[in-house]
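This week, think about what follows.
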Amino acid sequence: MTDRTHLTGVRLFTALDGEVLADGTVVVEGRTITYAGPSVDAPAPGGDDRVVDGAGRFVMPGMVEGHCHIAYANRGPRELDATTPALAMLDAVDNARTLLAAGFTSAISFGSAHSIDVPLRDAIASGRVPGPRLVANGPDIGATASNADGGPGLKHIADGPGRCVRPCASSPSSAATSSRSSSTASTSTPSLHPDS
């Protein structure tokens, strides 16, 4: 049997324009969408292909959560100091599952309690944990009196842009794919498109 699935008979919003197709088809090969459009133009299923009747259900592209704190969305900034790494990871796994179930297939996480974004990103990518593709981050970096000025070890205080470099370079989350500074509110975020 091939690893090809045809989802037929769906109301389809492709996001290429504002139109919702009344009779759309989506073809998935492995983990790649190879066709999304009118059923009349869809490739014919092969003998080993799986065909699923969407029965008029609505299908759209996944959404991107552009700024979340997946590791501590269940707690306020001042409560982070009392959160153990184990509890923060459990919260993050729950939050990743919730984001995916709500239709978010990608997320950018700014500020990571206990630097757990990187292993969470890797667990999602390997299929161990359900969740959106995650652009990971390390701990918050902020100026004195910012929201990052709190408990020891969870955040870095860096007064001035030049001082933000040191925590980024020495972070245990050196594999993070994004960095954010609360002192300047600037971001450096790679494209979520795999070919960029």
Remarks:
- Residues 4-59 form one domain.
- The CA atoms of residues 8 and 53 lie 5 Å apart.
- The longest strand covers residues 4-13.
